[in-house]
Amino acid sequence: MNQRVMHHDAASANDASDAHPPSGGTVRLTTAQALVRYLAAQRVTTEDGKSTESLFGGVFAIFGHGNVAGMGEALYQHREELPTLRAHNEQAMAHSAIAYAKANFRRRMMAVTTSIGPGATNLLTAAALAHVNRLPVLLLPGDIFVSRAPDPVLQQVEDFNDGGVSANDAFKPVSRYFDRIVHPAQLLSALPRALRILTDAAMCGPVTLALPQDVQAQAYDFPADFFAPRVVRFHAPAPRVDEIDAAFARLRHAKRPLIVAGGGVLYGRATEALHRFATAHGVPVAETQAGKGALAWNDPLNAGALGVTGSPAANALANDADCVLAIGTRLQDFTTGSNTLFTQADVIAINANAFDGLKHRALIVEADARLALDALADPLQGWHADRTWTARAHKLAAGWRDTVSTLTHAPQRESVLPYEGDVIGAVQRSSARSATDDIVVCAAGTLPAELHKLWRAGKPGAYHVEYGYSCMGYEIAGGLGAKLARPSREVIVMLGDGSYLMMNSEIATSVMLGAKLIVVVLDNRGYACINRLQQACGGAPFNNLLDDCRQGPLGAPKIDFAAHARALGAQAEHVANIAELEAAMQRARAADRSYVISIDTDPARTTDDGGWWWEVAVPEVSSRNAVRDARAKYDAQLAARADPAALNDDATPTDHE
């Protein structure tokens, strides 16, 4: 049966679209002018529900011959209502735009415009990141001439077999919607379609509208009412009665349930509904990377991070649960321990996207997280998890909180370099407001694992870690986007030296825009995370830490990150230990501009507590004994996964790296 519980979208009633504006008349505009004017007209209800603001917070732009004449002229006309922001790297500015949407829980977003050629293809990594993380961004790369009169134009990629192909066709597999605008009138259908994708909980992701240079400048008589201001409606499915009934039938028999909170809880504004549900029914909650912060870190039922980077509390509960309610999560391999963590449990997936909800052989409730939890409230009245299970969850969660406190307050020895847990503790202690207003930003390396376990997220949005694509270089650019979205919050970017060296130019952009960041660089002199993974798979240390790389006569460089950051316009310093880091954090918080702090850290040490097996294929044959030993362990785990009854603590190594 196709009946829905209610007809409702995930937004408030104030988000309903404006009535159709009066029609009549046309306005002659270029394609670029019409596109920019349409974007500037889109409105969204503010978080307090009392007024409206622009749906698009701005447009990041790096101009080149493929967009400066068309898009550049159009953006200049609307520079007040739709600010144009200049960046230093196309991939980085797209990361900033994506982070802006993430920090706004997908309720506001940005567009990005580039020239053709490298400017366009530099966006591809960011497009893939947005696609994997289900985050909205509008990509507007320039394209070759539709007329083909000047072919091959500067930077044009020519296909020997298809004259209609350009470099922008590479966006098709990493876009939720792709269109090449070859005539101005196409905007009348392409823009509403793009907007629907960007504001739909199930389809949300990157939209690419490729803009040929000649078409950008071409004029057309557009209907005037196409540009009337509209308050955007956000779309998310309401739950079906039959799916809610099936979920209820399964849940009511559960004795040991566990909730897995994913990013959909935050994007669906379901945090309060999650708290009510967990408290009423005594169900412990474990958090994915995207879902961390959906429940306050000190809630008695918050068991912490789940999976490969998970806490011992959450993983123990997941391993023993008889029913897992997965809310707004893709159930990727880090969450499920490569499908070994809760194989014994029935899985119910609440997800607006059916593709994601059908993972892990789950019973799906295809719906907005808040609406689904509310729909389950009445049928489940009186139902409660087994009291001993809830009591166990309380005990494990409290024990883990005590362990986190111990790990992040460990005494420091002068002869021993600090590790990530020590740095995390110092950063959180530096806040006079218990760090609840801080936003921590990270993406790749060892830090996401340590932050997932140890960072205390006091409220939704305090934890901003991109771990769907785990993209090195996202961190500083992402921090800029988060700061633009939440200017009153302290945004603390934590990253390793490897990520810093990959992409750091947006420090200069943050200074130029007055968007202050605190950047903490943990210098372990290489790619330490992958170095540990390499050795865990039996490999020799090779090509990861600087000392293990091929070097010329001068050897590996000693990089002065503080001097580099000062050269980009930030204030910066290098500190020698955790005590100096705490003092530097106070100076950084008081600073009037972006502030970079670097500290040397141990490349080998990690938090031993928690973790779960992660599948990384080990070579079947090798001349190294260590590789053959690692392969034997890998084969044993594969056999255990095939026979879930054989899984035990001994078969689940905790070091994912």
Automatic annotation (TrEMBL):
| E.C. designation(s) | 3.7.1.22
Q: Which residues form the Thiamine pyrophosphate enzyme central domain?
A: 244-376
Q: Which Pfam families match?
A: TPP_enzyme_C, TPP_enzyme_M, TPP_enzyme_N
State which residue ranges cross the membrane. none
Task: Tell me a Gene Ontology molecular-function term this record carries.
Answer: 3D-(3,5/4)-trihydroxycyclohexane-1,2-dione hydrolase activity
EC primary class: hydrolase
Segments of skewed composition (Basic and acidic residues): 1-10
| Family, per entry | Belongs to the TPP enzyme family.
**What is the protein's given name?**
3D-(3,5/4)-trihydroxycyclohexane-1,2-dione hydrolase
- The organism is Paraburkholderia metrosideri
